[in-house]
Amino acid sequence: MSSMLELNAEAAVAEERWQLDPLEEHELSVPLLLDELGVLRLVLVASEAGARFQREACGDAMTWMIEPNRIFHGSAPIEACTSLRDCARGILVHGLGLDPDIDLAAFEALGFSQELP
Predict the structure, then answer these.
(1) Which of 2, 61, 70, 97 could form a disulfide with 49 if both were Cys (CB 3.0 to 4.6 A apart)?
(2) Mean pLDDT lowest for which of 4-18, 66-80, 83-97?
(3) pTM of the model
(4) Domain limits of the chain?
């Protein structure tokens, strides 16, 4: 079992990993491998987040996508939402207008853990 210190260190590394300017040239050192389904899931969650943050004027979708999030066990949505379960969580969070950083236990207490694949 990972300690809280290890989880915080992992979250800090994950957050730093995505601190890039997409409009500047960068030498990328870590290639990402995604299949078509992973790309579609990522785009689906990103579009849901963007629509929600625009509609509610409650934050920045890009920031939400790259920052560690409790519902994804401290992973950033950009990494987590390529899986079916985390994609469904991301869609539900934004579709139902839940707290964008809802705790996984609180989310599951709403009864969603039984319904997700």
Answers:
(1) 61
(2) 4-18
(3) 0.76
(4) 4-19+35-114
